[in-house]
Hints:
Elements: H1 11-15, H2 20-34, E1 40-44, E2 50-53, H3 55-61, H4 79-84, E3 91-96, E4 102-109, E5 119-125, H5 130-149, E6 154-157, E7 163-166, H6 168-174, H7 178-181, H8 186-189, H9 196-207, E8 213-220, E9 226-237, E10 243-252, H10 254-276, E11 280-285, E12 290-293, H11 295-301, H12 305-308, H13 321-332, E13 337-345, E14 351-362, E15 368-377, H14 379-425, H15 433-456, E16 464-467, H16 469-484, E17 488-494, E18 500-504, H17 505-521, E19 527-538, E20 550-559, H18 566-571, H19 589-599, E21 603-609, E22 613-623, E23 645-649, H20 653-665, E24 669-673, H21 676-685, E25 692-696, H22 704-714, E26 719-724, E27 729-730, E28 733-734, E29 743-745, H23 750-762
Parallel strand pairs: 17-19, 23-24, 23-25, 25-26, 26-29
Antiparallel strand pairs: 1-2, 1-5, 3-4, 4-5, 6-7, 6-10, 8-9, 9-10, 11-12, 11-15, 13-14, 14-15, 16-18, 18-22, 19-20, 20-22, 21-22, 27-28
Amino acid sequence: MSFTPSPRKNRVWERHPPSQEEALKHLRLLQAALDVCGSAVMVVDPQGKVVAANSVAASLCGIESGDTLPAAWMQAGSPVLQALSGRAPRSFTFLPSPAGTRVQLSAAPVTEPGLEGMAAVVARAVPETSNGVEKLRRERDWAWSIIEAVGSPIVVLDREGRIISFNSACEAVTGYSEAELRGRTLWEHLIPPEEVEEVRAVFRDLRAGRFPNRHENYWVAKDGSRRLLSWSNTALVDDSGTVEYVIGTGVDITEQRRWEEELRQANETLSAVINTGPLAIIAMDLEARVIKWNLTAEQIFGWREEEVLGKVLPVVPADDLGFFHGCLERVHRGETLAAADRRGEKKDGTPVDIAIWHGPRRNGAGEVVGTVCVIADVTERKRLEEQFLHAQKMEAVGRLAGGVAHDFNNLLTVITGYSQMVADSMNAADPLRGYVEEVLRASESAAALTSQLLAFSRRQVVQPQVLDLNTLVAGMEKMLHRLIGEDIELVTLLSPDVPKVKADLGQLQQVIMNLVVNARDAMPEGGRLTIQTSAADAPQPDTPPNLASGRYAVLSVADTGKGMDEETRRRIFEPFFTTKPRHKGTGLGLSTAYGIVKQSGGELWATTVLGKGSQFQVYLPAVEEDAEAAAPQVAVPSAWSGTETVLLVEDDAGLRKLMREVLRAKGFAVLQAGDVNEALRICERHLGPIHLFLTDVVMPCMSGRELAQRATVLRPGMKVIYMSGYTDIIAGQPEVIERDTPFLRKPFTPDELLSKVRAVLDAD
Length: 764
């Protein structure tokens, strides 16, 4: 036993107080044990009513359970009244009992939890003979037997704190025998040094009559180990009220406290996991009222825990309540529901995409008492999925558009070529010449359309060079003023820190033109159009999410127009999608700009606010090279005829026939091949010289570039011209025709063919 006061005293008792019924049950068991002794034992309530009594109480005093104590026993100053008031127990002799016997009466407050305010009363017959002394001795022995049989440690101390009695339970806890400790103070061997002073202070309080007392402290066992005990202490006093002995009854709570600590740590760990994880965890009762709301739930939805506790889960939109309650019904039947993508609602009313899991919450008996919801914010995942699907759609549409445009370019070349030949053979007065010229004009319009489709599909032939965006915008400013009209204010904000980019000059000019025209059309009643350059580092919160890491030059075109709704914003880069009236646009302006920017390794990003305007941002990878001067234009020779030998490689039979006839008509010797193998055989076997190798870039089995490289090995000094409507993919990278490489873009006219052939042959 120990007497250390502690701020933690009685925590176990206070958390788990027994009921009065349980306490009386324990007393009745004790009563049965005390029936064999010669003393009357009674427990009385504050009114003096006997709530429990042993059999001796009836025979010795004539008192049974349910009786009221005699008035003489309840007079002022009696031990019963003192005990009921919580004072130290006292003994009085020579008090008469209802049975007429003279008894020695003792009383003490009951400290058993659940019986507070009651008193224990013991009446002993006044011994008059030696037989009485022997009877008292037997009672003592019986009482000590009971104390020994109790599993709880019980220790008795004298006024100096020396151990008088030390039961077997104390021996089991400490490893000391009673003989080893009898006569020694409690704090000599059993109390840890750091608790000695506190224990002695408590002992002084008990000796002064301030009891009962409950507390917890450690005992040091013989082997050095420590055991934590919870104590309930009282005292025995003499007739004058002086404390003679202090009695402590303890409970070894070492393991209990360890379990409590482990449980506390586990709860803290679990709480940390719940509150710091990426998932919202919400617990509800059977009425869907919130009983647990972690920090992540607060971060996702905006409600604090105190705002939602006891309320029906507020995150479910009204139009989704049917689904939600259906899930709860299944969970209440014991089902666990896998993740389902739904739309939640934040405190401010804004929607949020969520994935939600439902599971049953059970009590110790395994009964379903509520629901646990685990929720993940999948807004970013949904956005990325949408972007990925959009990119896939754009890629598929691009491949389709590029393939159609390429094949169409071959047809247009044939249509344009033969129409030009017919027109050249007719005199100016021929009435049919006008029809042929209309065919030529229609072919030119069709060629412009296919050029836009090729730009969108990122299969246009490009001639990249290092460019300065500020110089480019400044050079176009005068033209842009004329383009937008007088009712729109044009503002240019050019940053001196914008880095250089590498792109096709003509294509980048087309991007700016298309974005400016789109902004102009968004402001039919006038407004402000702002073109701005800047630098940016990716990734950043304000940069496009799929932008590769690195430094970028940014070209921004913003308007103060009507803006776009979300559906329009998602589709603005699709070919032929337009919000303009019929015949007012092709729907290819923004898709063309999109394709050019993507082909240049950049990103075109649009933001908009309905009713306030839109902003389009072009992100292009920065380069460290200096800007290049514009390449000089090659003069076109006036005479396009010749006698040189040309090897023509084209897999389209119609186009190959047209080009052969055009070249032969001007005196050139033409060798033709429909595939790469035939072309290489001609290079190997032709006996005469081959002056020019004219090949399509996209050929079955082998690219035009690779074919030309192998052919020039066989024919050193042979000049090369590439031709194509677009470039395809070789070795996983876009085929790029260098700026100085002779190239003939499809569709072309016979004059353009002859001009290019003659210019290449005449070049040094």
